[in-house]
Design goal:
Elements (H helix, E strand, L loop, with lengths): L24 H16 L4 E3 L9 E4 L14 E12 L2 E7 L2 E10 L2 E7 L5 E6 L1 H14 L10 H23 L4
Antiparallel strand pairs: 1-2, 2-3, 3-6, 4-5, 6-7
Bound molecules: ligand Y12 and cobalt (II) ion (CO).
Length: about 180
């Protein structure tokens, strides 16, 4: 299954994802295809809506201290729910659906999350650091929220201007012609 990353301002990114009820081979196929897409795009987190599926499914693959990503550290979360959160932290985030843009976002420092694995088993995790930030970023996707929605009014305005310019330049370089 070949998946394409959905990019802002695609309206699908505003959709609320639905809980998964069937833990079957279709779900496993989606998870495996998402993993391939995430790795080939140099991502460390991906939600199903970013490849056009409005399902409560996300992946996290935080690099180790040598900046290497291994399948052993892949976390697949189905139907995740944040049950506890504490502290505050700020991190410069990026998103495969908002290419070439990075901005500081405020998040909880630590979160505890209940979720299900690909076979429907109930799991829980306590996270801090980059994993905690990535979990919150990806769960936001399941609720139709992008990290750019968390920016101040003025930063968002600046983003919209820069992003529009970037899209225009991309279009020109693809067509090879100027207006
Ligand atoms: C901290 C903050 C945010 C997250 C969510 C997951 N975000 C990503 O995985 C972002 C990946 C990303 C990859 C890019 O591509 C390359 O670096 C080659 C990228 O660059 C371009 O789009 C040009 C931007 C974002 C987790 C933890
Ligand atoms: Co994202």
């Amino acid at each position: 299954m070949k998946l394409t990353i959905v990019e802002y301002p695609d309206k699908r990114l505003k959709e609320k994802s639905k809980p998964v009820v069937k833990f079957d081979s279709e779900l496993h196929k989606l998870l495996d295809a998402m993993y391939e897409s995430m790795l080939s795009s140099n991502g460390i987190g991906l939600a199903a809506i970013q490849v056009g599926y409005a399902k409560q499914v996300l992946l996290l693959n935080i690099p180790d201290e040598n900046d290497a990503q291994s399948r052993d550290s892949l976390i697949e979360m189905i139907n995740p729910v944040v049950v506890e959160s504490s502290g505050e932290t700020t991190y410069q985030e990026g998103c495969l659906s908002v290419p070439s843009f990075y901005e500081d976002v405020n998040r909880f420092e630590r979160v505890s999350v209940n979720y299900q694995d690909r076979d429907g088993n109930t799991k829980s995790i306590e996270a801090d650091g980059l994993l905690s930030i990535a979990i919150q970023h990806e769960i936001d996707h399941l609720n139709g929220i992008l990290f750019i929605d968390k920016l101040s009014y003025s930063r968002r305005k600046k983003f919209e201007k820069e992003y529009k310019k970037m899209l225009k330049e991309k279009k020109i370089s693809k067509s090879g012609t100027k207006e």
